[in-house]
């Protein structure tokens, strides 16, 4: 296992929630990349997207994720991290990338307002289109894929630890 664990996946799959529990279990630190972005920019994600547009936000996200320097840390990324080539190359280099996979219908049921969550949506894009666009990218970058279908937090944690 590499020095860090990087969690990727759609918004609402539980990257941050699982990340905290996984870090405690392993005795690791925990970093939420979205919070790093907000801290650097001194704005909420939705404000950055509103001010800078989708492309501007993704450049900021790419820069922040590509500059994470840490060890023995679980890193929960934003769902759109997979659009940043430099970020993903860096994260693959410093950690084991774990894709938390969830089927569309379960995900749709979990997510409320996407805009309120600071989710990167292109004009006219809905959740299904976003899901279908991102899944192949998550699979491309993943070292490990954990299907969360039907699993609660504890079972997901066990599945991740088993895969690692």
Automatic annotation (TrEMBL):
Its cofactor is Mg(2+). Its EC number is 2.7.1.71. Its main location: cytoplasm. ATP binds at residues 12-17, 117. Keywords: Amino-acid biosynthesis, Aromatic amino acid biosynthesis, ATP-binding, Cytoplasm, Kinase, Magnesium, Metal-binding, Nucleotide-binding, Transferase. Gene3D superfamilies: P-loop containing nucleotide triphosphate hydrolases. This is Shikimate kinase. It comes from Pseudobutyrivibrio ruminis.
